[in-house]
Amino acid sequence: MTPSQAVEQLRQRFGDAVNVPVLFRGETSVRVAREKIVEACRFLKWECGFDMLTDLAGVDNYGTEPRFEVVYHLYSMTNRCCLRVKVPVTEDDMTIDTVTGIWAAADWHEREAFDMFGLKFRGHPNLKRILMWDGYPYFPLRKEFPLAGMDAELRDPESGAGRVEVAPMLGGPFVPGQGSPSSILREPQQVDTIAEEQEKLAHPNKKESV
Amino acid sequence: MTRPDFIVTRLDAAIGWARKNACWPMPMGLACCAIELMAAGASRFDIARFGAEVMRFSPRQSDLMVVAGTCTYKMAGAVKRVWDQMPNPKWCIAMGACASSGGMYRSYAVVQGVDKFLPVDVYISGCPPRPEAFLDGLMAIQAKIATTGKLSSPIIVRGEYAPKLTS
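Predict the joint structure of the above. Result:
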């Protein structure tokens, strides 16, 4: 069974809850309503042969509505094909049913999506943070969260290891200095090359003396 | 002429000499730097030439903490706890860019240098540093131990001289 056949069966079974599939570069994606995700996944696993959940991830489409998405990457060992299932989740109600009962692999993936985006998976056996520590107040992969981080308490403040500080981005490897026209000035390596570079910028038409 | 069967030295010098040639590292391997640390410990680079081959996985038995790798905020408490469990006198190497400054991880999850909560003696550059660079750092620590590890000097209780943490 090909992915498009599987989606066709899914559409016959669930009707309006399943959108028209999108085929892009040979990959089939289909959007499923949040209420039907568990039933749809069960159908895909037991009727269509998608017996492996390779990945489950959250997506933050900041500025659009619905804002969040949960993406399931399914693989069929028997048919050797992939299918991508996307479920839109609104910011107002960030709950979605867990699929851990169908693929046990979903356990840690859903915990990661919860940790990074704050998506709540209803019925998950152990929904707690997996990368950050318990008590961390933010969801770091949300778009409004700055890469540099935000001030927060550590898990064990009595250890004396300080607290989470905002990382200095300026001067870091991925942030060029503001207002510098050339890369040598942005990331100075040697003093003499800076002087040369400044000279070059001051006299752009001057030929280099040999 | 017979060889003398005694030497005259200062106690500090003798103790410093003994200490510097018997650093027992606490390998706090957190990322890829730990692989280079392991290479330094293996036969080709042979850290035993410096008397530091006894990697102790118990902080109670070690006096040189090597923070080798990216220290996340989640790990920071554990690293600090291990450091606190090491008996004085003790020294600390920040191995690699991440341990020294956060390296390329300017991020919400990574401590921007373990000197935020540990009194680092020697920083080793590199990403990761080659074993030779680590051995060079070890020799720098040895020089520091030999010259500053006096019985009378405050380095003996240097744990108390750790930089105050920003709160």
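Residues 154-167 of chain B have pLDDT under 50 and may be disordered.
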